[in-house]
Amino acid sequence: MASRIIGTIAGLSSLLLWFSFHFMNPYNDLIGIEPFFTTTLLLALPACLAIYAAWRRKKVPMLIAFIWSFPLSLYTGLTQSMYSFFGITCLFYLTSYFLMLLSERTNK
User: Fold this and answer.
1) Which of these, 19, 26, 41, 77, has the minimum number of CB atoms within 10 Å of its CB?
2) How far is residue 28's CA from residue 30's CA, in Å, rounded to a whole number?
3) Which pTM value belongs to this model?
4) What is the pLDDT of residues 42-81, one digit of tens each?
5) What would you report as the CA-atom Rg of the chain, rounded to the nearest whole angstrom?
6) Helix (H/G/I), strand (E/B), else coil: 33
């Protein structure tokens, strides 16, 4: 149950941060499509996958969401802005994966 809550909160938090990053960021270039495409591909889609994995209790998609979002989450996680929380949400994907793994082993 904890893995479901953590994974869902992490995914929703990532989606909210991504929305803020694109539509409320005064430094964002609204004309260019490349940053929007890149962050959608590397942050928003893994967040959707993490939410799916949390609700279906699927370990492999949660691990894929972590690996998929890790490079850009690491980059933004090392900045000094509110978008450094992308790094925390990515770590919550990994935490949710380990909790799913642990609950599966204790149920056997």
Assistant:
1) 26
2) 6
3) 0.90
4) 999 999 999 999 999 999 999 999 999 999 999 999 988 8
5) 14
6) coil
Residue that the structure tokens 């929007």 belong to: 36
Spatial separation of the C-alpha atoms in residues 96 and 79, rounded to whole Å: 24
Tokens at 33, concatenated: 């499509």
**DSSP code at position 75:** H
Q: Phi and psi of 4, rounded to 5°? A: -65, -45
Q: Find the largest Cα–Cα distance for the chain.
A: 53
Query: What angle, 0 to 180 degrees and rounded to 10, lies between the N-to-C axes of helices 85-107 and 2-23?
Result: 160
Alpha carbon separation from 16 to 3, 77, 96, 100 (Å, rounded): 20, 16, 19, 24
Please say whether the beta carbons of 59 and 104 come within 8 A.
Answer: yes
Residue corresponding to tokens 């609700």: 55
DSSP SS3 for 30? coil
Give me the count of residues in the chain: 108
